[in-house]
Write a structure and sequence with these properties.
11 strands, mainly beta, 2 helices, about 160 residues, six-stranded antiparallel β-sheet, three-stranded antiparallel β-sheet, Jelly Rolls
Length: about 160
């Protein structure tokens, strides 16, 4: 799919735009970097990457992160590190889209976004199929996305 926000080669899934800017092939599997633009209020369900560390580098917008029950906010110029095996999610809390880099070590998970975009699968309607595909990438969904109704305060 063509994405006018990130240029040729970008994909879109559930309103989020992704473009892999450093491929697993280019790093012999060591890592990948995907640029992502997420609309206000968006964020994935809680999940665990069993075999990859994930680093978010915030470029624009503000996001609230949830990592093993702890909440914290990150904005432009800040990073969030999620070690492999840890339950996490995030939600865009600014009025503008959040643009960030997602660095995965080792690489490979960026292919998950491509499969989701190709199938245009929806959450929550298609969760059984999404979970099946996610298992190929050592990803397990563990709970719902964060919402503005959650009572926990940002730390």
């Amino acid at each position: 799919m063509k994405d006018s926000l990130l240029g040729p080669g970008a994909i879109a899934w559930l309103g989020v735009h992704y473009k892999t800017i450093l491929t697993t092939d280019a790093t012999d599997g060591a890592m990948s970097i995907t640029e992502s633009v997420s609309p206000p209020g968006s964020g994935p369900p809680r999940h665990i990457h069993h075999d990859a560390d994930e680093t978010f580098v915030m470029l624009t917008g503000d996001s609230e992160f949830w990592l093993d029950g702890e909440r914290f906010a990150r904005g432009p110029g800040q990073t969030a590190f999620v070690p492999r095996g840890r339950e996490h999610t995030f939600r865009v809390v600014s009025d503008v889209p959040a643009r960030h880099l997602v660095i995965l070590t080792p690489g490979g998970f960026e292919r998950f976004f491509a499969e989701m975009a190709a199938g245009q699968l929806c959450i929550p309607q298609d969760m059984p199929e999404i979970a099946k595909i996610a298992s190929k990438y050592n990803l397990t969904f563990t709970g719902p996305p964060l919402s503005s109704d959650d009572e926990e305060a940002i730390q």
